[in-house]
């Protein structure tokens, strides 16, 4: 079943509509959706390595625009939507501490958390709630999200064929490691937040 799912994702990644789906997932992940865009970015870069840089650019821009939506949720709709999303991800009791940390370390929080598997939507919503500078939020989001997605795309561009064969030969292991990193990011965010 896992192999069929992998092949389905690779086939989906080769479709003409795949970039739109990647942009949609990138946007949604930065504001409310729990699945990171890497689940589409990786197979798309493996399926078409020559387009890896375009995919990373698209992913970055959509993620920053989605981050602006998350920022708006935090700034304008925190009492209704924002608080619900923060509590849904298990961070409700830690928002005040995070807001205080923003006063001293706002730049570093955005830069570091934007590179990790810690859910970026928590950063975007809390940035809006804390009324962090919108200008710096956009600049730092472009840097950190761009770095993250361009590192993935670059790695797959340069080692694409060998990465694809490695993934296909060890699909179960790669899936398990990805799941552990994803779940570990959520757990780390709960305890480090």
From TrEMBL:
InterPro entries: DedA_domain (IPR051311). Keywords: Membrane, Transmembrane, Transmembrane helix. The chain crosses the membrane at residues 53-78, 134-159, 171-192. The keyword Oxidoreductase does not apply. The keyword Transmembrane helix applies. GO terms for cellular component: plasma membrane. It comes from the Bacteria. This is DedA family protein. It comes from Starkeya nomas.
